[in-house]
């Protein structure tokens, strides 16, 4: 863009990203505004995502998707500071990020005009893809993390690291061990002895982490996540290798590392099932899936997302308590849970006990089963008995 006569202001929410500009700023007019938004990212985006239980297509914890509205807020503030009328981004024309950044920009500063080089005909004629850009960066002494020897793209933040493109575009190619930066190989490098910790929640939001090994208690959101990232990463927790459905209609392969987020998600899910009424939980799960789609597709700032989030927050009022988690190589699991005294508990140990009578009349179950069997009996009457599969056929 500089070669085309533009004067640029750069904005980054990661101080490390400025290193890639060091060889460029000495030769071109470029001003950089650095915004440290880690704390906001954790408290305003990651924590609500844990509270809502957001997971896209049952596997992806939305590490990149959640970062985009957070970055967009910082971008719009930078745009106001320097009086910018245009927003330029490097998101590809085939990906989700172009949608996320631009929808967020239109929601926060509707008068801002968008420049997307990867959708510019002349730009695409000069650069076919990432390899051409890597070569361009080398010619101009611009340091970038991607190298010909490691031909994949990386996106890192406090929640996760994602890897895609390059050799990963073949879904039948196994990601090399050298790719992973946030977690160790759980089979060969993780400690074999499991560790335990307790995670506390209030209204579905993480409030503290107790580490049994060090007797430390972490209470600040950022330090909680950093600790869980370090501990979870040392056990190789949070690695996934998936093919997902992009909003633009394409399928893409992504490799993700989300150690701390995986632990928090598992703990919250366990406490939520323990604390919530069954039908409230089912309704919340429907809204959770819709909200995950909204976030993945770039609609964090939208009326439907606000509505879904408010409904989920109402459901989460009783999700307060603590969960004891066990971490072992490659996985984590809840092994104990307790609701906070002030919110009460739907779990009734005496009522559910197989050793105590009272409250629940077992004889009533016969009528309950008979009523539910009416539909099955009618189906058999109309169409005949169900066929049992014959394994010998």
TrEMBL record:
Superkingdom assignment: Eukaryota
Arginosuccinate synthase C-terminal domain residues: 152-377
> Tell me, which GO biological process terms does this entry list?
argininosuccinate metabolic process; L-arginine biosynthetic process; urea cycle
- Write out the entry's keywords from A to Z: Amino-acid biosynthesis, Arginine biosynthesis, ATP-binding, Ligase, Nucleotide-binding, Urea cycle
The protein in question is named: Argininosuccinate synthase
| GO cellular component term of the entry, any | cytoplasm
**Keyword Ligase (UniProt):** yes
Pathway it acts in?
Nitrogen metabolism; urea cycle; (N(omega)-L-arginino)succinate from L-aspartate and L-citrulline: step 1/1; Amino-acid biosynthesis; L-arginine biosynthesis; L-arginine from L-ornithine and carbamoyl phosphate: step 2/3
Q: Boundaries of each Arginosuccinate synthase-like N-terminal domain copy? A: 31-143
Q: Which NCBIfam families match?
A: argG, PRK00509.1
Gene Ontology MF annotations:
argininosuccinate synthase activity; ATP binding
Q: What is known about its subunit structure?
A: Homotetramer.
| Catalyzed reactions | L-citrulline + L-aspartate + ATP = 2-(N(omega)-L-arginino)succinate + AMP + diphosphate + H(+)
> Which EC number(s) are documented for this chain?
6.3.4.5
Please name one Pfam family that this protein belongs to: Arginosuc_syn_C
């Amino acid at each position: 863009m500089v070669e085309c006569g533009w004067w640029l202001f750069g904005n980054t929410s990661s101080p490390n990203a400025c290193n890639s500009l060091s060889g460029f700023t000495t030769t071109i007019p470029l001003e950089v505004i650095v915004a440290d938004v880690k704390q906001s990212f954790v408290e305003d985006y990651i924590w609500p995502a844990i509270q809502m239980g957001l997971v896209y297509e049952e596997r992806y914890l939305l590490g990149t998707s959640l970062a985009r509205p957070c970055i967009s807020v910082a971008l719009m503030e930078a745009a106001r500071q320097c009086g910018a009328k245009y927003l330029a981004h490097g998101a590809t024309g085939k990906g989700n990020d172009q949608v996320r950044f631009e929808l967020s920009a239109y929601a926060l500063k509707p008068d801002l005009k968008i420049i997307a080089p990867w959708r510019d005909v002349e730009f695409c004629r000069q650069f076919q893809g990432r390899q051409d850009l890597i070569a361009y960066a080398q010619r101009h002494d611009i340091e970038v993390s991607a190298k010909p020897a490691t031909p994949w793209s990386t996106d890192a933040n406090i929640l996760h690291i994602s890897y895609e493109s390059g050799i990963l575009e073949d879904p039948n190619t196994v990601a090399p061990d050298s790719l992973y930066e946030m977690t160790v190989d759980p089979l060969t490098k993780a400690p074999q002895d499991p560790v335990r910790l307790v995670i506390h929640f209030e209204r579905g939001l993480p409030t503290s982490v107790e580490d049994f090994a060090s007797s430390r208690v972490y209470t600040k959101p950022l330090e909680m996540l950093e600790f869980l990232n370090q501990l979870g990463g040392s056990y190789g927790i949070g690695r996934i290798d998936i093919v997902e459905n992009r909003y633009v209609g394409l399928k893409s392969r992504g490799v993700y590392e989300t150690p701390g987020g995986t632990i928090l998600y598992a703990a919250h899910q366990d406490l939520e099932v323990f604390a919530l009424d069954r039908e409230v939980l089912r309704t919340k799960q429907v809204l959770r899936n819709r909200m995950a789609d909204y976030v993945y597709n770039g609609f964090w700032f939208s009326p439907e997302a606000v509505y879904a989030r408010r409904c989920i927050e109402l459901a989460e009022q009783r999700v307060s308590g603590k969960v004891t988690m066990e971490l072992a190589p490659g996985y984590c699991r809840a092994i104990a849970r307790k609701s906070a005294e002030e919110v009460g508990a739907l779990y009734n140990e005496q009522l559910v006990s197989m050793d105590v009578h009272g409250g629940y009349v077992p004889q009533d179950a016969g009528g309950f089963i008979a009523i539910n069997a009416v539909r099955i009996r009618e189906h058999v009457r109309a169409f005949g008995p169900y066929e049992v599969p014959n394994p010998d056929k």
